UniProtKB/TrEMBL annotation:
It comes from Mariprofundus aestuarium. This is Chemotaxis protein methyltransferase. Its EC number is 2.1.1.80. It comes from the Bacteria. The keyword Cell inner membrane does not apply.
Amino acid sequence: MVNEHDFSYIRKLVYDNSAIVLETGKEYLVDSRINPLAKAKGFSSLSELVKKLQQTPYGPLHYDVIEAMTTNETSFFRDAHPFEAMKAHVLPEMTEKLALRKRLNIWSAACSSGQEPYSLAMLINDHFAAQPGWNVNITATDISEEMLSYTKKGHYTQLEINRGLPVTMMVKYFENHGSVWKAKDNIRNMLDFRKLNLSGPWPMMPKMDVIFLRNVLIYFDQETKRGILNKVRNQLNPEGYLFLGSAETTFNLDDSFERKLIGRAVCYQLRA
């Protein structure tokens, strides 16, 4: 198990570069993610790796540690309710309200290995199949360059495919290439991939009609959450929708948002 000194160093390194908080009790996570990295880099132990980090200026090794600690697990159509709300309510409403503009901007923030933005792409492609002429852009962002590179390829193992992806969609939107399934070009081309640190400055992006910011705020402290939601407020169109994770809320963080219930999904809209 990682010792207190090494845990404190890694916790500060991760917080200073991503604002993600590794609370006491997360030693097991550091141990499970950094020990394999230490061995892969030729160190005899996690402590030897930390010692090297402390002795050298910030560089690729520090970045590798941050990457290892900021990569989160995900799956296709994770926590199905937001996707059900998109299909049954949000997309039909947007289709009607934006009929003249015929442009829809969606953002999947902290997309990790990409199952969320690909899930959105499949859902949207199904919805607009009978309504040509729409320009739908899905921006997929993550702090990890490794994850973005993985997501861009659209390659998933059978195990990853089995986690949440219906067989009908697998056949329709993926092609089998030996040991991997590759996303077809029609949905890969819907995605715009960008590196983005939620706690840092944001690049110029279009105003968003829907923002998926799910299962990431839980890793930040209260001040960082408020800062992120403040920027989300400015990024979201007045009648747009914000989806958070099931354990997340804007309550006591930003009163500009109003909680809405669509079916069994909780989402947020800006107050009029």
